[in-house]
Amino acid sequence: MSVIDCQHVSIRYITGDFKSIGLKEYVVRRLTRNYHVKEFWADKDVTFRLEKGDMLGIIGSNGAGKSTLLKAITGIMVPTGGHIRVNGNIAALLELASGFDGDMTVRENTYLRGALLGYTRKFLDEKYDEIIRFAELEDFQDYMFKQLSSGMKSRLAFSIACLVNPDILILDEVLSVGDGAFRKKSGAKMTEIINSGVTAILVSHVMPQVRELCNKILWLEHGKQIAFSDDVETICDAYEEFLNNPDKKKKPPKNEKQLLELSEKYKVRMALEREKKEQAEREKLAKAVADLEAQRKAAGEGDDAGKG
Amino acid sequence: MSLDKISNTIQKYWFMFTELVKRDFKQRYKRSILGMAWSVLSPLLTLLVMKIIFSTFFSKNIPHYTIYLLSGNIILSYYKESTKNGMRSLTSNAKIFTKINVPKWLFLLSKNVSALVNFGLTLLVYFAFCIFDRIEFSPRMVILIFPSLCLLILNIGIGAILSAMYVFFEDTSYLYDVVLTLLTYVSAIFYSVSMFTRDVQRLFLLNPVYVYIKYFRMVVIDGVVPSLSYHLLCVFYAVFYLSIGMTIYKKYNHKFLYYL
Question: How do the domains of chain A map onto residue ranges?
C-alpha cells in the first residue's frame, strides 16, 4: 500500500473583491452588480504516488502551487477535485513559529502545540524534557513566550514538531532552523529522520539539495504538473535549463520529448560551460606561465645589463 | 474504524480541547485574582445602577424587583459574552488552523466553556441575592439546569453562525453590537411585559433570550414550573440555532481558509 496517493488533485482558489469588505458593502455591491470574484486553479490535475521511504522533491517557480499542494496533503485544505489518500501520521514544518500564545509560558505553549499536533498527554509527559533539552530552553521553561528571542521561538517550534517519529515528514524550504550550532543540530536531526525510513516531501529551490536527497521528483508550473518521475537528474537538468531561459514568456515543456530536449540542452550547455571554464583556466595558467617567463627574462636581461 | 481507533481519536480531541480551554482561561483572567472577581463584580455594578434608577418606575408593580433585574442581567450578559467570544473564535485562531490540521469547532467550544464557568460564578451571586430578597429555596429550582443547558446550546449555535460570518465580513462585530443593544431593550430586563397587550406579549417570545429569562423568573419568583409547551419552545430555539450553525460550519469548513 502506498503511503501517499494523489490522484488528479485540483485545488481552486478564489480571489477578488470579497476580502475585507464588510457585510454592508457586500450587499451594496451585490445589488449594483459590482461584485467580482476570480477563480484560479492553484493546482490542476496533479497525480503522484509515494511508497514508504521515498523522498519526493517538489520544484517549480514561485506561485506554482507547491505550498497549496502541501496544505492539501496535510489535510488543512481539501482538494476541489480528485482525492488524496495518506497512510500514517504527518509532521509538517510549515512556518511553525506562528500561532503560539505570547502570554503563556514556554511549558504551557509546548503542551498546547503538542495537543494541537495530535500528541497524547502521556506522550507529551514522556517527551517534554527531551523537547526542552533539544530546544536548549531548560532555563526558560517558565518564561512568557513573548520574552523569547525569535531564534528560541523557532527552536521550540522545530523541537515540538520533530521529536515525534512521524511516518511522513513535510518540509517547506526548511531543512534546518535557528542559528549556528542549532542549525547544525536541526539539520542533523532532519537527516536522521529522513534516513530512518520515513516518507518525506521537500519543497526546495536549492537544486543541489534536491539532487542529493530526493529519489522522486515532481515539477509544477502554474499549478500544472510538468513531470513526476524517479529520474531526478533528468528532470532537474530540464528544470535548470528552463530557469536559465531569460525569456519572460517562456513555456514549460509540454511533453516528454520537449522535456528530454531541455535536459539534453542543459547537458550540452553544462558541457560547454565546463569546457569554457577549463579553457579559461587553461588560458589563465598559460598567461601566468608566460608572465612568469617574461619576468624571469626581464630579470635575466637586467642581470646581463648589470654585468655589461 | 476499530473501537481502539475511535477511543484514540476521542482522547486526542479531548486533550486538544482541555489545552485550549486552559489557554482561554489564562487569556481571560491574565493570571490575576481580580480578573476572576471582576466577572462577579461587573454584573453586581450593573445591578446596582439599574436598581437605583429603575426602582422608582417599576418596583411597585414587580415583586422581588432585585431578583427580577438580576435574572435578566445574568442571562443576558452570559449570552452576550458567550456569543461575542464565539464570534472571534475562528479569526483569533486563524494562525493555528491555517498551519495545522485541527477541527475548527474545538475553538468555538473552548470559548464557550470559559463563558459557561463565568455564568456559574454569577449564578452563585444570584442565589446569594435570593436569600437577601427572602425567596424561599425549593427543590424545584434544580430545574434551572434545563434553561441553562438550552442557553449553552443556543450560544454555541449563534457563536458558530457569527464566527463564520466574521470570517467573511469584517464589520460583523459592529453590526452585532447594534443587534445586542436592541436585544437588551426587547428582553424585558428592567420592565415587565404585562404593560403591553397580550398580542405584543406573545411577540416577546420570538426572542430566545427573553424566553430563558422568563423561565428563570417563573421558577424563582413566581414559584411555578413552566408548561410542557414552554419547555418545547426552549428546546426548539436551542436546536434551531445550533443546526443552522452546524450547517454553516459543514458547508464552509474548508472555505474559511481562503478568507484569512
Answer: 4-232, 253-308
Per residue in B50-104, pLDDT (tens digit) is: 888 888 888 778 888 889 999 999 999 999 999 999 999 999 998 888 888 889 9
Q: Do B171 and A24 touch (CB under 8 A)?
A: yes
> Mean of the pLDDT values across residues B157-167?
95
Q: Does residue A112 belong to the interface with chain B, where contact is any CB pair within 8 Å?
A: yes
In chain A, which residues have their Cβ closer than 8 Å to the Cβ of B104? none
In a domain, B200, yes or no: yes
pLDDT in tens, A260-274: 888 888 888 888 988
pTM attached to this predicted model: 0.84
Which residues of chain B neighbour A99 with C-beta distances below 8 Å? 95-96, 99-100
CB contact under 8 A, A19 and B259: yes
> Do B16 and A18 count as a contact with CB atoms less than 8 A apart?
no
A120/B16 CB distance under 8 A: no
Look up the CATH superfamily of A4-232: P-loop containing nucleotide triphosphate hydrolases (3.40.50.300)
ipTM (interface predicted TM) = 0.82
User: Domain tally for chain B?
Assistant: 1
Measured between CB atoms, which of A25, A112, A118 is closest to B12?
A118
CB contact under 8 Å between A23 and B171, yes or no, is yes
Distance CA A152, CA B30 (A): 23
Contact A22 B254 (CB under 8 A): no
Domain span holding position B239: 39-259
**Could you tell me what percent of chain B has a pLDDT over 90?**
56
Please count the residue pairs, one from chain A and one from chain B, whose beta carbons lie less than 8 angstroms apart: 76
| DSSP string across chain A | --SEEEEEEEEEEEEETTTT--HHHHHHHHHTT---EEEEEEEEEEEEEE-TT-EEEEE-STTSSHHHHHHHHHTSS--SEEEEEE-S-EEEESSTTSS--TTSBHHHHHHHHHHHTT--HHHHHHHHHHHHHHHT-GGGTTSBGGGS-HHHHHHHHHHHHHSS--SEEEEES-S--SSHHHHHHHHHHHHHHHHTT-EEEEE-S-HHHHHHH-SEEEEEETTEEEEEES-HHHHHHHHHHHHH---TT-----SHHHHHHHHHHHHHHHHHHHHHHHHHHHHHHHHHHHHHHHHHHHHHHHHHHHH-
Binary contact (A116, B257; C-beta < 8 A)? no
Instruction: Mutation target for B interface from A76, A122, A124: give the one with most B CBs within 10 A.
Output: A76
| Long-range contacts at B195-204 (CB < 8 A, ≥ 24 apart) | none
B20 to chain A nearest CA, in Å? 7
How many angstroms separate the CA atoms of A14 and B168, rounded? 13
Asked whether residue B6 is assigned to any structural domain, the reply reads no
Q: A88 touching B, CB under 8 A?
A: no
